[in-house]
Write a structure and sequence with these properties.
Length: about 120
């Protein structure tokens, strides 16, 4: 495992001070693992940066990669949605980012993600 990719549910759990997320992030930091945050997941979770200190701190860390939905990513997301007959762009972006990075996904919605790809490693919060 090279790191952890967060979906919106994982980011919201962090924002709510979920101890499991805090412990996971500490272990990742100790092991030098990368944290990936797809911009689409951040858009779903971020509502008030001034009040979301934990989330705001996480996205500023040098070990955090904020992944845009650029042209190549948008194409990969669209192909995944077409292949699976689904429509949630943010979930598909999370899966694409995690697969590219070879990372586990922290999620509160495992069923939707499993519907996009077999063989995902999920940490459910």
């Amino acid at each position: 495992m090279s790191g952890v990719t967060f979906d919106a549910g994982g980011l919201i759990a962090l924002d709510r001070n979920d101890r499991r997320i805090l412990a996971l992030l500490e272990r990742a930091r100790e092991r030098g693992l990368r944290i990936t945050i797809p911009a689409t997941a951040l858009a779903q979770a971020m509502r008030n940066p001034a009040r979301q200190a934990r989330l705001s701190r996480l996205i500023r860390q040098p070990s955090t990669d904020l992944m845009p939905l650029d042209g190549p990513s948008a194409t990969a997301v669209g192909l995944l949605l077409a292949r699976t007959g689904t429509s949630d762009i943010a979930d598909a972006h999370v899966v694409v980012c995690a697969q590219r990075a070879g990372q586990v996904i922290v999620t509160s919605d495992p069923d939707d993600l499993r519907g996009l790809s077999d063989g995902l490693t999920l940490v459910v919060v």
